[in-house]
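Quick log. Single chain, no ligands specified.
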Amino acid sequence: MSGIKSYNSKIKVWLYIGLVMVVFQLVIGAVTRLTEAGLSITKWDVVSGTLPPMSDSEWQSMFDLYKETPQFEKINEGMTLSEFKFIFFWEYLHRLWARIMGFVFIIPFIYFLTKGWLDKDVRKRLSWVVLLAALAAIFGWIMVASGLVNRPWVNAYKLSIHLLLGISVYSALVKVIYFVHNGERKVNMPGIQSILTLFIVFLVLQIFLGGMMSGMKAALVYPTWPKMLGEWIPSVLFDADNWRLDNFVWYDSNTFMFAMVQFFHRMNGYFMLILGMILGYKLVQYGDVRIGVGMVVSLLVQVMIGITILIFSAVEVPVFTGSLHHMMVIVIAGLATWMHSKL
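-> predicted structure:
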């Protein structure tokens, strides 16, 4: 451990608090999506939006704005004010938590900076966290805006990018935490780097496909396992006429994109499980038992949760298991990022 810089314990506590808050934000975001609450707040008021409606008239005003959205007109017509308050809560909490995270980050950051506790190395790594968090926030609003015109839900592509940015903030923070504990110290594990890099590439793809699955509610179209409504490969994918740009843009116009996204999400998941088991085995061989076993167990649990979601999605995607599925992505991404920082 010689040569590793020693950072104030308060910085480490601050970073861990930030990491926990980011995890909560990602989970809250998952619940917000699964309850279709993301479009309940139609305005982006950075300052005034901090406070929820405080009177019956304010609640009615917010509800009236929601009534003008395609989601209310096409899906939730007849919704009561009480039901609106439920979905409003999740979107409000999602936005409020983001604001709180901003304060939790910026105030200690300024304090540590004035104390001279944050050197160039840490500041450089933290700048990536800030940049990615800003992009996630901006894309969050772009995503919400996509569901306020024409379509009664957010654009699945934009949702997937928002999700990837959120996971990236988390991963960047994990890297900072690794650095303040271990500095630039690396571990020599021949043969691991290439497998891990490939695993991360497919993990990024899987997160994007998972966002598409959620945004499209693709599980509802093929709620069976191991086959997809009796087919190993949906026949709609073999029709060359379906592989046209319009079907990718207007993905909800027929079943082609639902089939394609879910098929590749399943196949990529199986491939990641096999690759993760190889990676886990090699890590255990090198003595990194906790991360190796943790990776394999996490992937197995994730696959089982995914199958459970499919089986119980004949009518609606279960909120609890859907959120749990999302949490396991965070665990897997954290393990992969920590390992990547070591090599």
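The two ends are 16 Å apart (CA to CA).
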